[in-house]
């Protein structure tokens, strides 16, 4: 899985959030996790927490973030699940560990904004973490909506590669337990059939009183099968392909910065 998503890497920084009582003052959720205040507007009462994907960082949201601020939202992002050694990227730690990190970050955001719930926007592993947070970590009461871009909800089969490895269990076991954990434990966690994926998919994923919207791309070569690996086929969930909004080529990596995807996110936030 790692090879398929190496292109997601980017320098580690975090997006700022603007204090609406003093617009000239910039409040930053920095890589160390500090969250500075932002007073939500009356018509935008819930802060938006942005969760990047595997081998990525908070700069994944550099296009969407200014649009959220311009639309009047408090918005926060951090780089989570950072690795060490030769691959110092975000989103590579075991997904359950990263989910715990995000849970603590959400608590910080709620504390500094005074809000009772957040809007979660997640890409790829970030969407998976949002789903897991609400269902498996008991965070549903703190979430108003989850707006998810190609989340690895059901695990990726990596264009059938995982299925081929299932035919040689000993080889898959070595890859998942000895090779991938040395640089990307999250990659093994997101494979179809992993213990993490089975835990999330045991029973309904969508939680009561949380609104879910999922957007996938038919051009996805990372989280496959495209759509089927992401969609939550449960009552009340919005499942769409970006190509149904506008025909065109959009890769898995492109989604957080794609203009049509960004507009869809804003529309989902507005209808939430």
Can you tell me about this structure?
The protein is α/β, with parallel strands linked by helices and 272 residues long. The protein has a single domain (2-271), classed as Rossmann fold. Helix content is 30%, strand content 13%. The chain is built from 9 helices and 8 strands. It has helices at residues 2-5, 64-70, 95-113, 125-135, 161-166, 169-179, 185-189, 195-200, 259-271; strands at 16-18, 26-28, 48-51, 75-77, 118-123, 143-149, 211-216, 238-241. It has a 6-stranded parallel sheet with strand order 4-3-5-6-7-8, with helices on both faces. Helix 3 crosses helix 4 (125-135). The two termini are 33 Å apart.
Short description:
This protein has 272 residues and is of the alpha/beta class. The protein has 9 helices and 8 strands.
What's the CATH C level? Alpha Beta
* Strand/helix succession: HEEEHEHEHEHHHHEEH
CATH superfamily: Alpha/Beta hydrolase fold, catalytic domain
Principal-axes shape call: globular
| Fraction in helix | 25-40%
How large is the radius of gyration? Answer: 17 Å
Structural class comes to: alpha/beta
CATH-scheme architecture: 3-Layer(aba) Sandwich
CATH topology: Rossmann fold
Number of strands: 8
First-residue to last-residue Cα separation: 33 Å
State the main characteristics.
272 residues; 8 strands; six-stranded parallel beta sheet; alpha/beta; disordered N terminus; Rossmann fold; two-stranded antiparallel ribbon; 9 helices
Any chance you could write out the topology, listing elements then pairs?
Layout: H1 2-5, E1 16-18, E2 26-28, E3 48-51, H2 64-70, E4 75-77, H3 95-113, E5 118-123, H4 125-135, E6 143-149, H5 161-166, H6 169-179, H7 185-189, H8 195-200, E7 211-216, E8 238-241, H9 259-271
Parallel strand pairs: 3-4, 3-5, 5-6, 6-7, 7-8
Antiparallel strand pairs: 1-2
Helix pairs in contact: 3-4
């Amino acid at each position: 899985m790692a090879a398929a998503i190496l292109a997601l890497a980017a320098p580690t920084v975090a997006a700022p959030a603007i204090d609406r009582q003093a617009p000239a003052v910039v409040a930053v959720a920095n890589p160390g996790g500090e969250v500075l205040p932002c007073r939500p507007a009356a018509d935008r009462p819930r802060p938006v927490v942005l969760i990047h994907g595997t081998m990525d960082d908070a700069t994944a949201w550099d296009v969407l973030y200014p649009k959220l601020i311009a639309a009047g939202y408090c918005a926060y992002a951090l780089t989570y699940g950072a690795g060490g050694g030769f691959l110092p990227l975000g989103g590579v730690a075991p997904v359950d560990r990263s989910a715990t990190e995000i849970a603590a970050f959400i608590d910080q955001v709620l504390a500094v904004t005074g809000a009772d719930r957040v809007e979660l926007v997640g890409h790829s592993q970030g969407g998976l973490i949002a789903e897991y947070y609400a269902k498996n970590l008991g965070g549903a009461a703190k979430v108003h909506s989850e707006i998810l871009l190609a989340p690895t909800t059901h695990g990726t089969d990596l264009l059938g590669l995982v299925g081929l490895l299932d035919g040689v269990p000993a080889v898959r076991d070595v890859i998942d337990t000895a090779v991938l954990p040395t640089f990307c434990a999250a990659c093994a966690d997101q494979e179809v059939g992993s213990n993490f994926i089975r835990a999330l998919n045991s029973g309904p994923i969508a939680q009561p009183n949380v609104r879910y919207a999922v957007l996938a791309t038919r051009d996805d070569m990372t989280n496959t099968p495209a759509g089927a690996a992401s969609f939550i086929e449960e009552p009340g969930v919005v499942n769409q392909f970006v190509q149904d909004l506008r025909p065109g080529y959009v890769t898995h990596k492109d989604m957080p910065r794609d203009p049509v995807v960004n507009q869809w996110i804003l529309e989902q936030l507005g209808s939430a």
